[in-house]
Amino acid sequence: MEEAKRGKAKPLQVEDFSSHLHSYHRSNSQLNEPLGAMELPGQYGSDQPPEPNSHVLLDCLDSDLLVMVSMRAPKRVTFHGSDQKDSRFLVKGGEDLRLDERVQLMFGVMNRALAANPQCRSRGLGMRTYKVMPLNDEVGIIEWMERTQPLKAVILGQVDPLNRGQTYDVANAKAAEVYQQLYHTPKKGTLYLPKMRTVAADAIEKKLEECKRKLPADLLARGVAALSHSAESFLAMRAAFCRSLASLTVSSYVLGIGDRHLDNFMLDLSTGRVIGIDFGHAFGSATYQLLVPELMGVRLTRQMTSFLEPHSTSVLMRTHMVHTLTVLRERRTDLMRVMEVFLAEPLLDWEKQSRKLTDEQKRSLEEGDTQDSYSATPQSAASAVTSTSSGGGSVLLTKWTRDRLDGAKRKLDGGNSAFITISEIKRSVQPLVVTYRADIENVVLGCQGSLRRSLSESGLSVDDQVDCLIEQATDGNILGRTYIGWAPWV
C-alpha cells in the first residue's frame, strides 16, 4: 500500500528501535519478562464485546522494518501471529491519529446503516474500512491494506509508457506548467485568492480545459483494464469502483473530509473498490484552515468521471449517491450521537484552532451558539468538557467543537452544499481569505444560472442536495482556482 503512495521505501531493523521487541518470542518467558504476552493490535471492535480468549497472540516480530519515504517516515512492521499468519501494520509518529480513528468509526456506523437498507444492500453500497489505533496524541498504528495502490500510481502507470520511460509526475507535468502560467508566484499560494476578483470565470475554465488536453482522459480506465482478465472483469471492477466511490463521496462529504488529492484514494487491485485514507482534514478544516481553501466539497475530477463512461456522473453515480444520502439522513440522529465523542474529547488541533479565532469569530460563536439546534448532543457531553477547566478557554473550545459538528448536522438536515462551504469560509482566519471573502463566496455560489445559487440555503430534498454537490464539485470555475498540488485537471 504505502510503497506505491510514498515512492521507494528503505529497510531498517527492529533492533534499531527496540531490543525488547527484537528479542521477543511468545515461547520464551524469560525474554518476555519486560513485556509479557502480547496480542495483535486491532482486535477490539467498537460494535461488539471483546473476547480475549479468542484473540490472536504475537509470536514474534519480523526483524525487518520498511521505512516509508515521506515527511513523517512511518514504519511498516510485520507481526507473526499465533494463527500462523503474518499481519502488517504501519506505525506513524508526529500525528494525532484520533481523528482517523473516529472517521473509521463513523464509516463503520454508516456502513451498518447502509447494510440495513434493502436498496443499498442490494446495490452493494458501502466503504471498506481499516483499523486505526492511536497510542497517544502523537503515535499510532494503522492496519496495512494489501493489494492496494493509490489512484495516482494507477494513473501514472499508464502515463509512463506515453513518455517512453521519462520520469513523470501528474503534479509536475505539462498540464501543471500550463496551470502555473496563471498562478506562478515565488510565495506559495499568494496569487490564488486575489485572482478570485481579477480573473473572470470564462478565463479560468478555458485555462483548466487547456490543462486537461495535456493528459488523456481515460488513464484510470486503462489502469483498471490492465488489471482485468476479461471484459466482464473490467465491467465488474468499474461497477465496484462506482458504488464505492459514491458511498465514500457522500459519507466523506457529511464528515467534511478534505485534502482529497490523488494519493489519498487507494484502489483495491482485486475488486476495483476505492478506499479513502489519511483524514487529517475533516469537518471543513480544508476550507477554513488552508491558505488556499478547498471550495469543491468532494473530489469528482476528470479521471474518475471518465472511468464511468459511457454513463455520465449525473446518471449512474448520482443514483448511488442519492440512495446513500437518503439512508444517512434517515439515521441522522444516530450519527450525530456517535459524534458526541468529539465533544467529550476534542482533538488537539481543534483546541489550537479555537485559540486562533478572531474577536469577531468569538462573538459569532457566542451569539450563534448552536446548543438549542444541536439536539442530538446532550448538555452533559458539553458540560464534561467545560468542567475540565475553570478558565474560559474550555468553554470556547466546546462551542468551537460544537460548531464544527453543526456542519455535519446541516448536511444531514438538507443543507445546500454551497452555503455550507460559505459558512466554512467565514471561519477562516487567513488574512487573504478574509480580504477576498466576498469574491470567494461568489465563486462558490456559481454563475447566475447555477442550481446551487437558485435553491434555498436549507431544507433541500436528497435529490437537490446531490445535484448541488455534483455541480459544485465539477464546476470548472472552482476547480480552476484550486491549489496546484490538488491536480484538479486529473
- Percent of residues in β-strands: 5-15%
Class by SSE composition? alpha+beta
Total count of helical runs of at least 4 residues: 25
Shape: globular
| Radius of gyration of CA atoms, rounded to a whole number | 23 Å
First and last CA, distance: 21 Å
- Low-confidence spans: 370-392
Number of strands: 10
Largest sheet: 7 strands, antiparallel
Number of domains: 2
Q: What average pLDDT do the residues reach?
A: 86
Helix fraction, binned, reads 40-55%
Describe the protein in words:
The structure is a single chain. By secondary structure, the chain is an alpha+beta fold. It folds into 2 domains: 2-93, no CATH class; 98-129 and 147-341 and 403-490, no CATH class. The chain has helices at residues 2-6, 19-23, 98-115, 118-123, 151-162, 174-183, 195-198, 201-212, 219-227, 231-254, 285-288, 302-307, 313-330, 332-338, 340-344, 348-355, 359-367, 379-386, 393-412, 417-425, 431-435, 437-445, 451-454, 462-473, 476-479, and strands at 10-13, 58-61, 64-67, 75-81, 86-93, 132-134, 139-143, 148-150, 265-268, 274-276.
